[in-house]
Design brief:
Chain lengths: ~110, ~130
């Protein structure tokens, strides 16, 4: 099984400032096709999750360009270039290489 | 646009079977994979499994022995059955569509969950 460690678990942020969330995996998420099998989701308070990033670095339709995904091998990062108040919620990474496994979640809140 | 709605009993007795249905509206169930995800109270997300509209399934190993998914194309629905439930199965259960997107240079697609239902709360208690 692929084990994931997401950090930090809590992230106080200041509007207008950047933010970054990390996920580390017990094995590489590189598929034989050369692409990384990782998604990022955001669950806003009281809502269902929504996709932000797929295949490590591709923004889903309608996702603002202040969100970006990067990484390689076993380490991946979600970055928000300038946090807005509407970005609060819990962010999850999820590997899709072997079945699917969610990270523990990072709760982002405004300072 | 496509919308998903979970339905089922909110309370299940321990050792009994939990049955949920997800109804797809605004689009066809055909051509897609469909997934279930759950969230225990105050905890994170747990992937349960997915089913293709043709009936192909993939389950998370920890639930595989108790889990059955099925699809009803005539009613645009897919379902989940989880047997021998315990309090640990208490959660909000979400259904989701797996959208397929082309992978450059490949004949197969990548799938990610792009549309989610609002979730249904299931409590396991006597």
């Amino acid at each position: 099984d692929i084990v994931v460690t997401q950090s930090p678990l809590s992230l106080p942020v200041t509007p207008g400032e950047p933010a970054s969330i990390s996920c580390r995996f017990s094995q590489s998420l590189l598929h034989s096709n050369g692409f990384y099998y990782l998604d990022w989701y955001l669950q806003k308070p009281g809502q269902s999750p929504q996709v932000l990033i797929y295949m490590a670095s591709n923004r889903a339709s309608g996702v603002p360009d202040r969100f970006s995904g990067s990484g390689s091998g076993t380490h991946f990062t979600l970055k928000i270039s300038r946090v807005e108040a509407e970005d609060v919620g819990v962010y999850y990474c999820m590997q899709t290489l072997q079945d699917r496994t969610f990270g523990q979640g990072t709760k982002v809140e405004i300072k | 646009q496509v919308q998903l709605q979970e339905s089922g009993p909110g309370l299940v007795t321990p050792s009994e079977t939990l049955s949920l249905t997800c109804t797809v509206s605004g689009g066809s169930i055909s051509g897609y994979y469909w997934s279930w995800v759950r969230q225990p109270p105050g905890k994170g997300l747990e992937w349960i499994g997915y089913i293709h509209y043709t009936g192909i399934t993939r389950y998370t190993p920890s639930l595989q022995s108790r889990l059955t998914m099925s699809v009803d194309r005539s009613n645009n629905q897919f379902s989940l059955r989880l047997s021998s439930v315990t309090a640990a199965d208490t959660a909000v259960y979400y259904c989701a569509r797996l959208l397929h997107t082309a992978i450059p240079g490949q004949s197969y697609n990548y799938h990610y969950m792009d549309v989610w239902g609002k979730g249904t709360t299931v409590s396991v208690s006597s």
